[in-house]
Structure formats: C-alpha cells, structure tokens
Amino acid sequence: MNSFKDRDMISLRDMTIDDLWTIVSRTGEIKTGKHRDCLKDKTIASLFFEPSTRTRLSFESAVVKSGGSVFGFADPGSSSQKKGESFSDSIRTVTGYCDAMVIRHPVEGAARLASEVATVPVINAGDGANQHPTQTFLDLFTIYEEFGRLKNLKIGIMGDLKYGRTVHSLTHAMALFDAEMIFISPPSLKMPSTILSDLSEKGVSFRTLIAPEGAADMNLDILYVTRIQKERFGDPQEYKNVAHGYRIDKSTIAALGEQVRIMHPLPRVDEIAEEVDETPNAIYFTQAHNGVPTRQALLGLVTGGIN
Amino acid sequence: MERAYKVYAINNGTVIDHIPTPLALKVVEILGLGSEGVFTIGVGFQSKRLPGGKDILKIENRILLENETDTIALIAPDATINIIKDGRVSEKRIISIPNRIFGVMQCPNPNCATNKLGAHRHFRLEDKEKMTYRCEYCERVTEIIPANLTAPE
What we know:
- Chain A is an alpha/beta fold.
- In chain A, 37% of the residues lie in helices and 14% in strands.
- Chain A has two domains: 12-131 and 289-303, Aspartate/ornithine carbamoyltransferase (Rossmann fold), CATH 3.40.50; 134-288, Aspartate/ornithine carbamoyltransferase (Rossmann fold).
- Chain A contains eleven helices and nine strands.
- In chain B, strands 2-3-1-4-5 form a five-stranded antiparallel sheet, covered by helices on one side. In chain B, strands 6-7-8-9 form a four-stranded antiparallel sheet, with no helix packed on it.
- The mean pLDDT of chain B is 92.
C-alpha cells in the first residue's frame, strides 16, 4: 500500500528511513522511464509567496513532464494577500482548485499551517529558515545514484552551517544512514550546538573543522558546499577574508583526493571555481537536474499516481 | 494555639500551594482566571522547601482540569494541588509537565507562523530534563521561562 497517498510533506522530522528509501527508489524508477503520466488529469497549485527560481521551475517542470497541469503565482505581489486576505483563507480557497499544492513562504511554519487548512496534500518548498525537505530528497537521490548506497558514507559539509536550512536537513537525514560527518565552517557560522548534541546522543560520528584543508587525509566521499552569505558579516572586508578560505578549486580537490564528489544546492557565487565544473568530481548540476524526477516521484506518490 | 489564617479557607475549589514567590500572579495569568470567579492569593510565605518564599492561590468553586494543573508545573514544578469539596481535601493531585502545550506559551521566534500568520500556539515536549519544547510550526526548540508564558489564546 502507498503510505504516501494524501500525505503532506512538511518536515524531515515527519519522515522515517523507509519513507526516504521509498522516495529515492521511486525517483530512480522515474529516471528509467517508469511511471510516465503519473500526474495525468491532476492539477497542481504552485504557490510561491517568496521568489525562487530552481525550486519553482523544477516543480513546474516535474508536473508538466508527468502529464499534469500547473497553475499558481511566482511572487506574493500577484496573490490576493496583497488585498488583505489571510494566508489561511487563501489556502482554504485554493485547496478546492487542485489535487495537491506546493508552497514556499518566508514565514517559518507556514507550510504546516497550510497543511492544517488544506484538504489536499501540501508539499513544503521552503518555509523561511526552517525546512526545505524536497532539497534533501534530491540530495539523497543524487548521493544514492553516485555511490549506489546511502549508508556508511563520509561526508564533509562546508560553509554557513549556522543558518543554512539545507545543511540542517541533510545532517538530520544522513544521521539516519549512519554517515560519518565532518563540519567545516568559520567559527562564527558553526553548526548549532543543539544539532551537535542531538548527534552525540544518537551516537553519530562527527568532527568539526575550521578549514577544508583539515579534511585532506580523511578520504571524504562527498564535500557538500554551501554559500557563505555576505549579509552575515558586518564588515565587507571580513566577509572577503573569511569566504576566501572556503573556496573550492582544483587544488582543493587534489588535496581531498580524486574520490571526492562535490555537491552544492546552488546558486553558487564564487565558492566553487568554474574550473571544477569540468572535473568528474563535480556533481552539482546533476544534483540540480535531479530536482525534477525527485519532485515527479513525490507528487506522484502523494496524489496516488504512483503506488 | 489555632493558626491564624492569612489566606481564607475555601469550601469548594482548588488550592495551589508551593508556588515560588512571586509567580502566583503568573499562574493566575496562564490559567486565564483574571476575568472570572473569585480567587485569593497569598504572596511571600516562608517555606522550608522554597528558600525564596512561596505563594498560595485559592480558586473558589472551580475544579481545575488536569491539563490546567499540568500547565502550572511549567513554572512551579513543586506546586501541590488540593481539590477541595465540602471543606475537605477530596484529591491531592500529582502534577507533571505536559507533553503538549496549547495556547499559553508564545513562540520566541518572531518569524514563526504563530506570530505572523495567526497559527494557534502549539508546542511538543522535546527534553523533559532540560524542560525544552519544540514549536509545532517553526520547529524551534525553546526553554521554558515564565516570561514566555501568557494568558491562553
């Protein structure tokens, strides 16, 4: 039986390891040509209360590729909230127009609130600094596709580990698969202590480093790079100095070893040199492309088009 | 010698003793008692158990529900609760911090849906020893501090 039908996808916290396996394996099936038209006769609402490029376009591409139709808005300026309608009322209305809805909103908890008032499945496409579960699903699928397994991998996670929702969700998911984790960040942007103590309690093996060079002899399978944002620093020069130490180029890859695969949720600014793109180590564009089959699988599962 | 009552005895209702001074008014607030019924408060009694003193709250003609008395444990974990019927103690209620909190705690995250979009406040117990709760909406973990507790929504 499909335990996903009519389910909301709001947070990694709601998911079991079996759920994650289901999404990964169905995504693999989509890529081999199965489940064509799994959204036939389905209408999906795409409600972006905050601008986004990759996530919105890949969701919309996923719907069209699976034979469904999609409507919605790409920024809040075109929604009736501008006229003063409450968020809950907007959702209560749209729920009658569609078979599932995808929501991005700048307020943390907005997708959970939407799931309480909607009568169709709600997929969280990012709620403020909180959760962005479909990014984690596509990350997991990309790792599985590359390594043929999710268990017992050694993963370095680098950049803004304090505020990045992507790295928090990925850490939560990789802990379920017994990964060994190495957190690499400037001291001011290190992984929150609540997450580290949670990992310790679960017996997850991890280390923290302040520079990628420290991981040179660790034989990392993956280095997951995220952007260090300028606005986290008061002084632009301080930002420049810090960010420079977290830039990946061919020499970094030579130090980490040829086995390492570089991932990034994109967009990148200059934290990965363009010369890395052509190396077999770079899998971040494949990762971005996997957003489409992953979202096809997820929408198919929650609307019942995939069992 | 007969003890002089500083807080009058009640015939029916709920007596909450061993509230750390000066939190009796906070208990009144989170129980939402302000606008209904009769209650008496004693503040700053000496107590062997509470070196900073204790407050007593007596609520007339109202038997608090268990979910209400468990909420008191958030700020007064050592409080003793007696249910009074016909002038006698009919129940000594044991309290423990609740697994879920509805309404009375405000999420400290200003960008939470409970503060921005009108979602109803709802927390789940995260760690009993540390007395931390996770917001059902923004998922932020917060420690219980009396300042975050308010009248029920």
